[in-house]
Structures are given as structure tokens and as C-alpha cells.
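Hi L., both proteins are below.
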Amino acid sequence: MGAAFASVAGAGATTKTSRGTLHSFKSIAPNTWQLKTINRAKVKRYYRVHGETDCGVVRGQSGDQIPCKTLGKSKYAKKPVRVMWETIEGKKYATQVAVTIR
């Protein structure tokens, strides 16, 4: 999967950004998770998060990088989230995930 991700990303894949609320985060394979968000229009989106994804928390003007696997903790549930993603073989793969903590 990593090789496919790298080859498509290097082939001019377009990165998009979505915002919403972190609804769920669960493991679907070793070092791979599924992130579910809901936006204001109640649209649900699912993203694949893997070990190469940059994950972090934003606190006002500062932020910290965190291991992606910690996004399943209850303190991040229902928090605003920004996801930068690319479509690869019909699936959305997150390249960056930022949860806002206030």
C-alpha cells in the first residue's frame, strides 16, 4: 500500500482539504486507521490514515505533532478537524490531520 501511495502521490495527485468534526477513529489494519468526520451539512466522510500521515493538535497559535493512533482518545472526539487528503484508487487517504483543541 505504501508503494502505491507514494507512486500516485508523486504522479501529480491533487491534495484537497476538508473540515468537519472528528466523529470516530478506529484501527482497520496494522498501522492503518479509519477516520470518520461529519461536516455542518451532516455529510459523513471517511479517510484512511496510515503511519506516514502527519497528525497533530492545534491550540490557538501553537500546535504539536502527535502519533496518529492517539486520535482515537475520547479527548479528541467531537473536536473540529482539518484533513488534507488525496484520492488513490477510489479511496481518500489523509496526508495531514489537525484536531483543534480549545
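That was the first. Here is the second:
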Amino acid sequence: MKKRYTRILCLTLAMLFVCFTVAACGGGNTPSGGGTTTGGGNTPSGGGNTPSGGGTTPSAPDKIWHIDAAFAAGESTTRSWAGILEEMKVRSGGRLDYTIHLAGSLLTFPEIPRGMQSGVAQWAYLPTVNYVDIFPLSCRIMQLPFMGLEDPVVAAEIFMQLFDEFPQMAEEYEPFNMIPIAASPLWGYFLHLIDGSKEVRVPADLAGRTIVPYKTELIPMLSKYNAAGSYIPPGQMYESLERSVIGGYVNCWAFAQWFVLHEFLKQHVLIGDNGMFQEFFVYVVAKDFFDDLPADLQQLWYDVFRNQPIENFNNENGYVYMWRETESFTQWQMQFAKDNGHLIVELTPAELQQWKDELSDVHAEAIAEINAQRGDEVATAIYNRALELIAQR
């Protein structure tokens, strides 16, 4: 009998010893619920976050903030979007996770502000040409024709400096539950036409054509020369060009690559080295989502988007200087145009001056209109400061 109790006592002590040993080795760090995380937690596919040599995968985070990212078009840049979101996921230790919704599957361009306001998405990009009426300070002023912007990287830096200096620009986004984090340029907007039989060298040559200008300030010039100005959503451009409903558009070179429009184009008018104007993408995060993040994750958004060395913003990840990505599509489209015998029109200085003269009054008119809508002179201050920064660079 005594031996039996002795064996029981020994077994009990052994079991207690094993339990203490497991706890000391970290077995107690698994969160309640078994530690399972959606999508594999902070271990990227391929085991990229597991130390080489068979180390232990980090424990799942206690809380995960999930990002629904709405990108309404441009699937060809998906690798960049996925790259930077994956970077944020890894650098956050898995506390930030994401889903990318493409091609209007969650929101289309017009729906993005209301969708962010209602909480459908937590992150999105806004093409500035689409929101001149809603966000005039940030989506109209810097994109006025012939502002003098040249290098796309410098353009992005100037744009974000204006955001930093004028809080009224960010305040435009508050009613829609959005915080602007960063911006990237798409370089210059040129004229692309489906008719290559007659060169367009001066504004009068546009007579009789229907053009999608993607810029409010170009409408008066088109009307003056009996050229209709139409607005076609990017997703419908293919059919409109194919059926010759429109004769061309003003947009960046990469636009044709994104929407497979190059097969219809026959003429490209290079209106100066940097086009008539530049468009930007403004990247926004939902304010209620952002406010719920701990301070270190809030800082991570700015570190990833704005505080990295420029050499980090390459074709694999990085958005402030999305030109790195856009440039590859631009070069492809330009080479395609040359290889297929498209008419590429380079204007003389005198011809270029005619375009500038036709658009010389639109700056003052646009700024006056914004001031009248707001009831203040903030637009004037932003415009003058933008010109000052451009002249300095």
C-alpha cells in the first residue's frame, strides 16, 4: 500500500515538473482562442517572417485591425498596392491585415468618398481629376494647366508640403471620414487621338473633334474651337474609342496601358515636355479606423508612405513616388506608339505658346471660383505658395 502511494506521489510530481517546464518555455503566450489569425497572421506566404534555420514563428497578435482597400481601377499596379500593404502587415507584427478590392468590386471612383464615410473601406486612393468639386483646394489648384510642374518626384514633394502648411486642405476630407496620408503623381497629361491623318498642332486644329479632357479648365477652349468636351468614365473608354464615339482624350501615357486603349490611338500631341498639367493620386485612410489605432501603428502609416528614403520607392513597393511604377507603363506605351507608326507631334515653341495663351485666364477664374465657394482667400494663398515652391525647385 505504501509503495502504491509512493508511485502516485512520484507521478504527480513528474507531471507538475513537465507543466512548469512548458510554461517557462513560452507555452503560456498563446492568446485565448488558440492563437489562430486570419490569413496566417504576420507570417507572409512563403514563411518570409520565420527566421532562417527553422526558428519559431512569432505568436499571433492580441488584436488585428483589418484594412479593406478600395482601388477602383488600374489592376496593372496591383503588385505595388499589395507590396506596400504587405510591408505594413509585416512591420506591424501582423496587427494590420488587409484585403484589396479591385475594379469597382467594392467602390467605384464616384462612390469612394461616401464609401469611406460609411465605413465600407478603410483605405483608398483618389484621382484628383475626379473630385475637383468636392475637394477643390487639393484636387484643383495644383492641377491647373501649365502650373510649371516638371519632375514627378518633386511634384509629389511640393504637393505634400502644401498639405503640411495648409490644414484647410486636409479639412476638406473630414466630412467624409478621411485623412489624406500621401500623394503620388502620374506625370504630364498629353493629347491622344484616334485620327492620325491630320496633325493637331494648335487649339484651332481640334475643331470638330470630341475630346475627353479630364480637366474642367479645358472645356472653354474646346467650346471656342467647336470641339465638344465629353466626360467618359475610364472603364468605358475602350468601347467609346472602339466605336469612335469620341476622338481622343487628355491623359497620361500610362492611361492607355491600364485600360488597353493603345490599339485605337494613332496620334499623340506632346504639349510641352511635361504636358498641360499633372494629375495626382491622394491616398486616404478612414479617420475612425485611424483614430482607433495605437500611436505606433499610426506612425507606421507615415513612415511607410512618407518617411522612407527615395531609393526605397521602387517598382516593388512604395506609393509616394508612384511615378516609379507609372514610368514603366509610360515607357511601354511610348515605345508601342513608335513601333506601330503612330503620329507623334512635337510642338514648336510658338505653337506651345498658343496653348498657354488659350489657357492663361483659367488660373484666375478657378481661384476666384474656389474663393467664392468657400467665402475666404485660402485658395489664393495655396496657389501663390505653390508657385513659389515650384519656382524654388
